[in-house]
Write a structure and sequence with these properties.
Layout: H1 13-21, H2 37-49, E1 55-58, E2 65-71, E3 80-86, E4 105-106, E5 109-111, H3 119-135, E6 143-148, H4 159-165, E7 173-178, E8 183-188, E9 191-200, E10 202-211, E11 215-216, H5 225-238, H6 247-260, H7 269-276, H8 280-283, E12 290-298, E13 304-305, E14 308-317, H9 322-332, E15 337-345, E16 348-349, H10 355-367, E17 371-378, H11 384-388, E18 393-396, H12 408-411, E19 418-420, H13 421-437
Parallel strand pairs: 3-6, 3-7, 7-18, 9-17
Antiparallel strand pairs: 1-2, 2-6, 4-5, 5-19, 8-9, 9-16, 10-14, 10-15, 11-13, 12-14
Helix pairs in contact: 1-3, 3-13, 10-13
The structure holds zinc ion.
The site of zinc ion (ZN) has 5 residues, from loops.
Length: 438
């Protein structure tokens, strides 16, 4: 079957993304935000407008909502592909140049919270399937389209909840595409690398509890919980875990070496970081386990030594190096400090090969002759962790051709989040090619 592009495929993506940004769906992580019900209503309306009959669903409460739509493919015997995007955004703090919930267009960009994380991807997916309906196009295989709440707080009211409670959404699904990948990095005028996410780190959010002897601040105390905790936290904060190369990292280093015509030693992350500039921030932490102290709590009065002091640690672990992390981390704990894992989630890694990976490359090349795809390992986490529990093979692929001067990595959760209109239109064209033929 030869592929014929839809002529007006990129005509409405900008307006869809702008409309989604205008609905505040801030996720504060504690269920106090506006929730995703209103933005889910907006997505549902966008699908119904062209004739689809999606399901708007609730998860743990009526505030937490999303939208599901299964689009039948030409060949019902093929396994389905899940295309997913989250509807929540992180809080918009700091001083913005334009209203973070305005979705305004200035300097050829759509501005606002969610512009790159990830109402851009939601709008791209919506623009593709709306065009299908208008033009009577069917994808090759079933597409399970899913817009989710609560990604930004780990998906307990979103992806994980759905995997546990609505397994029918994932029936026959073998692979998935969502965030964070598909964005470009210009090497030179003849070569653009597109980073495809094939792996992500696991999460260990831990509470450390130091126990000591409570007492008067004016007296000697040889087991002071504050001191014990401080020593441990300081050790953890200064600790550098060894560099470790997963198969994704090995493939990435090889690809970057080739692209820049350099011979980068895989153990030499600094050279890699140097050539990639700001993009390296996305992958700079992908070569080792990390553990960062983020919160401290102790005491209630200046002249009282408390019996307990606690700290929170955000640790991220490489696929295949989880046990190594635990062994090494536990050695950093002081004698009177114990560890309590608050949230733990798996690391993921899949091969950068196969028909779907080839189609990602072909779809990008059709719209950008200078495109070359490279795999990478995301140092953060996404909803893919939940879907992987069902054995679904997950990729980060929301295509965006970015202008070289844009510091894309800084826009994620940053002030003045924005996305170029041209990047969105490119994304819609590539995504349509990909989803229809996948
Ligand atoms: Zn996101």
């Amino acid at each position: 079957m030869t592929y014929t592009p839809i002529t007006d495929i990129d005509s409405e993506v900008t307006s869809l993304v702008s409309q989604l940004i205008q609905v505040d769906s801030t996720n504060f992580g504690d269920d106090t935000g506006p929730g995703e019900a209103e933005v889910a209503e907006c997505v549902e309306a966008m699908l119904r407008e062209v004739g689809y009959e999606p399901e708007r669903f609730e998860t743990s409460s009526s505030k937490r909502q999303g939208v599901f739509l299964r689009i039948p493919g030409e060949d019902p015997t093929l396994p389905a592909l899940l295309a997913h995007g989250h509807l929540d955004v992180v809080p918009a703090v700091g001083k913005w140049s334009h209203n973070p919930f305005g979705g305004e267009i200035h300097d050829g960009m759509v501005w606002g919270r969610g512009a790159v994380d990830m109402k851009d991807g939601d709008g791209i997916l919506l623009s593709v399937v709306r065009a299908w309906k208008r033009h009577g196009i069917k994808p090759r295989r079933d597409i399970a389209l899913l817009f989710l709440p609560d990604e930004e707080a780990g998906g307990r009211h979103g992806a994980h909840w759905l995997v546990d409670n609505r397994p029918e959404f994932f029936e026959g699904v073998s692979e998935a595409v969502g965030e964070v990948g598909g964005f470009s990095f210009q090497v030179n005028k003849d070569l653009n690398l597109y980073f495809i996410q094939t792996a992500e780190k696991g999460i260990r959010w831990m509470q450390l509890i130091a126990e000591g002897k409570a007492g008067h601040g004016a007296m000697h105390n040889d087991t002071n919980a504050v001191t014990e905790l401080a020593e441990t936290v300081s050790r953890i904060g200064k600790h550098r875990f060894e560099r470790r190369l997963t198969k994704t990292n090995i493939a990435l280093v090889k690809a970057i070496s080739e692209a820049f015509n350099l011979d980068i030693d895989p153990s030499d992350v600094e050279s890699l970081v140097k050539v990639l500039g700001p993009t390296a921030r996305t992958i700079g932490a992908s070569f080792a386990n990390t553990a960062k102290p983020t919160m401290l709590e102790a005491g209630y009065k200046v002249n009282v030594v408390p019996g307990e002091a606690t700290a929170m640690i955000d640790a991220r672990v490489l696929p295949g190096f989880e046990d190594e992390f635990d062994l090494e981390f536990n050695k950093l704990l002081g004698e009177n400090v114990r560890r309590n894992d608050v949230i733990s989630d798996i690391a993921l890694e899949t091969e950068f090969e196969g028909a779907m990976v080839d189609l990602m490359a072909a779809s990008l090349s059709a719209e950008d002759p200078n495109a070359r795809t490279v795999p990478y390992l995301l140092s953060g986490g996404t909803d893919a962790k939940a879907f992987a529990r069902l054995g679904i093979r997950c990729f980060g692929f929301i295509p965006l051709q970015l202008p070289p001067e844009l510091d894309f990595a800084a826009l994620f959760h940053g002030v003045d989040e924005r996305v170029p209109v041209a990047s969105l239109e490119f994304g819609a064209r590539v995504m349509e090619r990909f989803l229809r033929q996948a």
